[in-house]
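Form 12-C: Joint structure prediction
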Amino acid sequence: MGLAGLRIVLMEPAGQINVGSIARVMKNFGLHQLVLVNPQCDPRSPEALMMAVHAKEILESAQLVATLPEALHECVRVIATAGRVSSWETPLENPRTALPWLLEEPEKPVALIFGREDRGLSNEELNYAQRFVRIPTSENYQSLNLATAVGICCYELAQSTQTTETPTLAPNNLAPWDVVEAYYQQLESLLLKIGYLYPHTAASRMEKFRQLYNRTHLQIGEVAMLRGILRQVEWAVNQSNYENL
Amino acid sequence: MGLAGLRIVLMEPAGQINVGSIARVMKNFGLHQLVLVNPQCDPRSPEALMMAVHAKEILESAQLVATLPEALHECVRVIATAGRVSSWETPLENPRTALPWLLEEPEKPVALIFGREDRGLSNEELNYAQRFVRIPTSENYQSLNLATAVGICCYELAQSTQTTETPTLAPNNLAPWDVVEAYYQQLESLLLKIGYLYPHTAASRMEKFRQLYNRTHLQIGEVAMLRGILRQVEWAVNQSNYENL
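Section 2 - Result
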C-alpha cells in the first residue's frame, strides 16, 4: 500500500485559505498530487502560499484542469466525498472503512474527490466515482470546512498505511475510469438509438445504471464483455436495417 | 461514553482563523467547551467569527483564563498533544489509542490540551497531563496546523463514541432469487438470438455475467430496468425482422 499514486481532486475550490491549508496537510501526511478542477480562486495567491507554509511546492506543482474527467484520467479507483445527499441510493461509507481501498493498487493512479465549499458535488459528478465516503458528524452541524475534511481523510489514509494491512480482494484488474466511462457512453447511445431512452430523460436514467455498475467495481475483462454485447446488439439492429434498404 | 464533559484547551493561541476554525470543527463533532489560556488574539474578532460560521456560540461562550491550571480546574483526566518533543521520556501515543480514555468518565470534566502554533507546550505545561498524544505525520513535514490537529482529535473522539456501524444499503428492496434468475434467462436467450452467445459456450459465459450481477445485490427496481432494456432490444431486432417479411 502506498500514497504515491493518490490524487487529491478539488472541484471548483473557491477559498485560497482552504487550498493553501490543504497543500500543508497533504504534505503532513505524505501526499503530493493536488488536482484543481476549474478553481474559483488563485491557488498560488499570497494567502494560499502563506497557509501552505512549508508545502508551497504542492501548490506550485498542482495540476489545473477544466473538467472532472480530465482530473480522473487513467485512475483505476475513485472515491468521492459527500455531505448530505438526497436522492442517492448508493451507501455512504465511513472514511476509515473505505479509504484504504484506494491504496490497494500502489503502482496505479487513484483519486479522492472533494466537492465545492458551498454545495459539494452534483449527482452527475458523484457518478464518476465507485465508492462514496461521508465523515460522520454531529446532527447539529454537519457541514465541515473543506480543508478540515481533506485533513481528516489524509490522516485516515496515512494511518491506514501504518496498520496491519486489510485483506484485499484477489489481485484484480479493475477497469480504469476512462474505460468504464466509454462503456457508459456506448450504452447510452445504443439505448437512445433503440428508443429505450429519450434525450430529455437519458441523464437521470443513466445515473441509475452508473450507480449499479459503479457498485460492482468492474474489471477490465468484464467491461470488454459488456461492450461486446453492445456491439453485437448494434450489429443485430443495423443488419436488419440494411436488409430493409 | 460521552463528549459533554470534554474541554478543548488552547494554550496561548495566536491565530484568529485557527480559533474560529476550531469552534466550527468542535461543533461538527459534538463538542462545546472551549477554554483559551491567555489568548494572543481576539477569539471574537470578525475573522474568527467568520471561520466559525454556524458555531459562533462556541466562541461566545468560550472561557478565557490566565493560566493552564485554571483551565484544568476539576478535570479528572487530562491529555496533552505534543509535536516533536526532545528530552521527554513519557511515551507519545497515537490519538486513536489514547483519546477514548478521556471519555470513560462521562459525568466528569476532562481536558485535551493543545499547545501554541509556533512552539507547542513547554515541559512544565506537559507535566499537567497524564497522557500524551502525537498525531503521526510524514517525516518530511511534521508540523500540523493547530486547527487541523484539533480537527483530527475531535474526529477521533467522535468516532470512538460511535458503535462501529458500517453503513449499509438503505432498507432496500433486494430482488428475490427467482426475479434475478428470470433476468438471466431472458439475457441468455437474447444473447443467443443475436449471435453473441453460442449454445455450446453459453453456460460458461453466462457464469461470468452472473458473477458480475450477483456481486451488486440487485434491487427489484434495477432488475426491472435491466429487463426493460432487454425487451426494447428484442423489439428493435424483431421489428426489422417483421419488416423483412
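Section 3 - Comments
Chain A has two domains: 6-162, 177-244. The two ends of chain A are 58 Å apart (CA to CA).
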